[in-house]
Amino acid sequence: MSAALAARASRRLTRDRPAMTALATLLGIALACLIGPFLTGHPPERIYPDFVRVGPSLAAHPTEAELRPALTRLAFRMRLSLDDAARDGDRVRLRLSAEKPIDARVLRLLPRSALFGPPTVLDRADDGRTLVVAAPVRKLFFFLGTDTLGRDLLTRCLAAGRVSLLIGLTATLAALLIGVGYGAVSGMAGGRIDALMMRILDILYALPFVFFVIMLLVFFRAGLWLVLVAVAAVEWLDMARIVRTQTLSLKGRDFFRAAVALGSPPGTILVRHAVPNTLGPIIAAATLLVPRVILLESFLSFLGLGVQEPATSWGVLIAEGARALEAAPWMLAAPAGFLVVTLVALNRLGDGLGAALDPLLSRDPR
């Protein structure tokens, strides 16, 4: 692409406000997925047994209704009896008792629960069987709720976005590299070579995708890299057809015939004339391919053939949310919301890039 064409495309894109809004949205989602899990205060794999399937809320946890059951479970684990519990602001005062003298080391379970800070023993009975303890109460926020294991859903969605975006971008890049090269060569060659290359493409189209993935699983273990290989091996087919069609249409134009008449090598014509003039449809198709790859990964993960624990993706979270739809609808709404926003933004950005990179446009849009 020439510098003049790049500058013209940049001006067109910056004047397209919906496309720039979509670009800003995508950058925001990518940035949130990269640094967000470090800012939520919850590791993605952290399980809170006391907060299973908690709904989305801006309120801090534990609430008054949650505090007593949590303390009762902790006392049971410490093999103590909870005689009394009173909350005073950000601190809780406990009276614990046992049939035998209490070893203060069992109080370490309080900070390990992630609900309370280090405890302080305020009073001890002479026989050591009763303790009065004070401990700070930590504030936990679950803005998008928790899942069936008690993990923070916001953190899980942001961590899953890293995997989903990685799969989408990597598979799309592979499809671009293979599909653009294959399609451009096929369109430039024409004749029998073009027909042969297209028949090979038809044979690959006829292979069932799920059967192909299952065959890979026979020899390799399911995981992220297997999803990348399987998706990249299939998604370049459409890109090759798009580039071939565009190249065939360009062969009849005057600038293309002039390059052939001047004796330019086929490789030079391919790089300087064919590929740059198909960038508009290529970019538009690529932006649509990213959400398609993410949805395809979701399908594989739903079948158990995609991303495996402890890693996760939007597809895995959507599959988990679908199974818990009646009891916890937010488990489906949260990852689906991220996916829908990403899909809409990519579609709108693709339209804007397709128009901005179209070399046949004679003037900038107003």
Write up what this structure looks like.
With 366 residues, this protein is α+β, with helices and mostly antiparallel strands. 61% of the residues lie in helices and 8% in strands. The strands form two sheets. A four-stranded antiparallel beta sheet has the order 2-3-5-4, covered by helices on one side. Strands 1-6 form a two-stranded antiparallel ribbon. Helix 5 crosses helix 11. The longest helix has 37 residues. It is elongated. The two termini are 23 Å apart.
Q: What is the global morphology?
A: elongated
CATH topology of the largest domain: MetI-like fold
Structural domain count: 2
What structural category characterises the helix and strand content?
Answer: alpha+beta
Task: Work out the helicity level.
Answer: 55-70%
Which stretches of 5+ consecutive residues score pLDDT under 50?
362-366
Number of strands: 6
Oligomer: single chain
What share of residues are in beta strands? Answer: 5-15%
**End-to-end C-alpha gap:** 23 Å
Largest sheet: 4 strands, antiparallel
Task: Assign the CATH superfamily of the largest domain.
Answer: MetI-like
The topology string of helices and strands comes to HHEHEEHEEEHHHHHHHHH
What is the CATH class of the largest domain? Mainly Alpha
Strand order of the largest sheet: 2-3-5-4
Rg, nearest Å = 29 Å
Mean pLDDT over the residues = 83
CATH architecture assignment name of the largest domain: Orthogonal Bundle
